[in-house]
Specification:
mainly alpha, globular, disordered C terminus
Length: 272
């Protein structure tokens, strides 16, 4: 019994620490960098590491494939958020975005996917999202003179939310099976917890831009899951997880290179 609780504590601390570090960087560096940071697999990553420790390669491969398909639901979440954020409060923006994710994820969990069909679905959703939000990405925001100092309570809330999510997902994974586990693991818990806090602090216009850039970044997370699905059975968990992480980092670095350079107009995140 003690070993079970110790394992759960390690999972919670590991997942929470990863999210806190990513959140601090996102708050200090502004919307573009923040979008790229929160697009990294900071919640699903630890979940898949622990999943690989508890289940065989076939289970993780199945979860990753269905997670890749469900990544399209996260794209819809970001599209709705980006279009509604400017001029609206957090509840009026985040509520419809979460409903959009649920509406897309439920049918995804009921279908059988292949790497090709999952890729086509993601390409369709994220392509449409990139086109429909390009005007937001190009918008110029006024730099603030004050950079946010993340509050300890905010960090604790985010860390706790992700830690509980990962712990609950792993506890239920055997009963849920790989398909449903992968879909649930794709829920953007890191983004949701960050958006709840940041929307009030930096305003809807900056959040619209952050979500719009994140649309481009989260497509890369889907490619990370596709890599994990394709590699874990022939090469093993350690190699597959490592290469999948490298795919995520390389994609995000490339996305940063091609981002427009607004120079000194790029905003910091302010405390309100």
């Amino acid at each position: 019994m003690a070993a079970i609780w110790l394992t759960a504590l390690i999972r919670a601390l590991t997942s929470g620490t990863v999210v806190v570090l990513a959140s601090v960087l996102a708050e200090w560096l502004g919307p573009v960098w923040g979008a790229l940071v929160v697009s990294l697999p900071v919640s699903a990553g630890p979940a898949y590491v622990f999943m690989a420790m508890e289940h065989d390669a076939a289970f993780v491969a199945g979860a990753a494939l269905n997670g890749f398909a469900a990544n399209a639901a996260t794209g819809l979440f970001l599209i709705v958020y980006a279009h509604r954020a400017a001029g609206r409060n957090m509840t009026a923006t985040l509520g419809p975005a979460i409903l959009a994710w649920l509406a897309a994820a439920l049918p995804v969990s009921a279908l059988t996917w292949t790497p090709t069909t999952a890729f086509l679905l993601n390409a369709l959703v994220y392509g449409a999202g990139a086109l429909s939000t390009r005007h937001v990405v190009r918008a110029t925001l006024v730099r603030s003179a004050v950079v946010a100092r993340p509050r300890p309570l905010d960090l604790m809330i985010r860390a706790s939310a992700v830690a509980l999510f990962v712990a609950a997902l792993l506890a239920l994974s055997t009963a849920l099976g790989p398909a449903r586990t992968g879909v649930i693991a794709a829920f953007p818990v890191t983004m949701t917890s960050a958006f709840v806090i940041l929307h009030r602090r930096i305003g809807g216009a900056a959040m619209a831009r952050l979500a719009s850039v994140a649309i481009r970044g989260v497509f890369g997370f889907g490619l990370t899951l596709l890599t994990l699905h394709l590699m874990i059975q022939p090469y093993g968990a350690a190699v597959a997880l490592t290469v999948a992480l490298l795919v995520s980092l390389i994609y995000s670095a490339g996305l940063l290179v091609v981002q427009p350079r607004p120079g000194r107009q790029e905003p910091g995140i302010v405390t309100r």
